[in-house]
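Sorry to interrupt, but I need a hand with the structure work. I would like you to pick a protein and set down its sequence and fold. Please put the record directly below this note.
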Amino acid sequence: MTSRRTYHHGDLRQAVLTAALDVIATEGPGALSLRDLARRAGVSHAAPAHHFKDRTGLLTAIATEGYTLLAEALADAPDLRERGVGYVRFAVGHPAHFQVMFQPELLRGDDPELLTARERASAELRAGVSGLDSAPGSGSRSATDPRTAGIAAWSLAHGFATLLLTRNFEGEDGPLGDRDPAEAFRTLAGMLF
């Protein structure tokens, strides 16, 4: 008796996303193949297309999930500095999402779910900047353009997270030494904001 392989998987969409995140974390987004992901999930090579259509759809789903997770990581932060810490912690905790989210050439930029998730994360970042002028001791910052301040804050958090993920801070003699990255970021943000 021969058994025929049928399409049946409890949560194929999540299984493919999880496998894709593993591949991205170890090999980068360029190594993704729907056929390989289907093999890892134990389904036919065409099965992932039912959920993602193609590789770009899969990467767009990963970025959408990433922006949603980022918005959640920022939502409870009381001020701009802590939003930056949340940003860095998100990047460290979700390096594969982080890699994909900021490579627009990999994504469907007009995807409604992506646009919604990206806007939610952006709103959380802007909320941190809006508190700058009202912060105690803000003094001369009252004339700060919120958009420019937002770019500066995002650049600091994103740059720090990127340098951290690409292992530019490693080693005893590295700029962080044995300091916790979140504490190091708080110090840097305090110097500038």
The chain is about 65% helix and 0% strand. The chain has two domains: 10-52, 55-135+144-192. The longest helix spans residues 55-75.
